Amino acid sequence: MAMERALKHAFTSFEIRKYLLELGATLVGFGDVSEGLAGELRHLPVAISLAIRHPSPGRNLIHTTRGPIYSNRYQQIDLKLEQLQKRLVSLLKSHGFKCLAIPPDSHRHDTRFVARLYPLFPHKTAATCAGLGWIGKNGLLVNETYGPRLSWATVLTNAPLEVSATPYVSGRCGKCRRCVETCPAGAIADREWVRDEGLVPHIDVEACRRQLEQNRQQVGEDICGLCILACPRGQANLQEARDLRWVLR
Ligand code: SF4
Ligand code: SF4
Fold this sequence. Notes:
- Keywords: Iron, Iron-sulfur, Metal-binding.
- By secondary structure, this protein is of the alpha+beta class.
- The chain has one domain (2-247).
- It is 31% helix and 15% strand.
- The chain has a four-stranded antiparallel sheet, sandwiched between helices.
- Strand 6 and strand 7 (141-142) form a beta hairpin.
- Helix 1 (2-9) packs antiparallel against helix 2 (13-22).
- The longest helix has 20 residues, at 75-94.
- It binds iron/sulfur cluster (2 copies).
């Protein structure tokens, strides 16, 4: 509450980040997304990108006769992200600013009218513009500290907030090929992301989909997640990193 009172006077990116981190966000960043926004969203040129880290993946690892499968679906984290978005939206509105909350990806089935706008804006754009991560060869947002093991949400706004001076405009995967080599479907191209090329998928989506379908027949869920597990970025923050390296060897 003290922080909410402080925000009434000093409404800055620094204060908002502090507020959201105290409420449980792992990462908070601000990006200028004015370039390339769809016409419907051009009045909201600032993206506030939020992420919450995943717990250690051991509990979500399923061992099958054909190798491990990893479920990266965390309903509790998505609910928490939505709560953070609600607090943020109410704060922005109380200062008279417009905003639109883009929910976590698992909520894309939302049937409200506003949900039709969600596909116009990917979280990847917000997070890369906010300097929180790049798009890895595995097609996922990769953060230097947590790798791809984060869930993301975005709030777009017209509040005049200070934005990141160091957005990511290209990938930092370099010579790493861990996800390329681990993917059982051979769906990942060994190709670095470059923002100017647009959000061109470097993944063979059909091959990935076929793999998910095979897994669904085996374990009842269309999950795979090996390209998340394999990523060495942020593994220092995983207690079970050594075990995972053994699993994926
Ligand atoms: S989810 Fe599995 S099949 Fe799809 S790209 Fe990642 S490793 Fe490959
Ligand atoms: S495994 Fe390596 S190549 Fe793949 S996303 Fe992570 S850092 Fe990039």
